[in-house]
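tool_call predict_complex ligand=Z5A
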Amino acid sequence: MESNYDSNSRGALIVLEGLDCCGKTSQSSRLLSFLEGLRHSVESWRFPDRNTGVGQMISSYLANKSQLDDHTIHLLFSANRWEKRSLMESKLRGGTTLIVDRYSYSGVAFSSAKGLDFGWCKALEMGLLAPDAVLYLDIPPEKAAERGGYGGERYEQLEFQRKVAKSYQILRDASWKIIDACLPIEDVETQLRKIALDCVMTCQKGKPLSQLWSVN
Ligand code: Z5A
Ligand code: MG
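tool_result ok
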């Protein structure tokens, strides 16, 4: 008997990336409400996930309460994604869309900005699930520094954020959606809604999961 069911039907993995204070968290919660309003099964995630044991070590490091070697903290950020990988896969296969505030790209961009080898940073992410969309909220580091909440944690320094911006430029590929994050918050939201919805519909129709680092 012919079936309309596509075994590749699943939730979408949508990642938000960008410099500190570009608006990722604000836009994640807006996207969550938008997709929930359309009755989609959706969750908002973030990395680092500070709720796990590994995440607590990262949080303490970011708050300057502990010191760690640069490679060690990089490994912890990566481990924090690996410890959520199987849950991520089961959520997606079960039809839930995940809006993820920072992912492997942050891992590579921030650690390589410190001088760690780009290839080494990327290698640790191989085998994690590849996003269906990477939404890069583009903002000049100087503009981000004027926003509320800037400067509280390690890495929230203008000179360092300039280096991170350069690393993101090396990392990004043609599949990334680049959104001007200096626009009013509602205008950014309008653009993200359209991209996210298209992505959710594509994955619902059926799209195989793939792994980093593959081109979408
Ligand atoms: N990190 C890493 O090194 N390696 C890794 O693997 C990972 C992360 C995953 C903590 O991340 C640090 O960890 C981060 C990278 C590193 N360090 N830095 N920098 P986090 O995700 O916990 O923190 P964050 O994202 O960097 O900071 P944030 O303050 O949460 O920024 P945001 O989420 O992008 O922005 P926001 O909270 O939505 O907005 C910031 C302010 O701007 C707020 O007052 C908003 O009202 C305002 N805003 C937002 N949008 C606009 C617009 N469009 N116009 C005007 N004002 C706006
Ligand atoms: Mg945030």
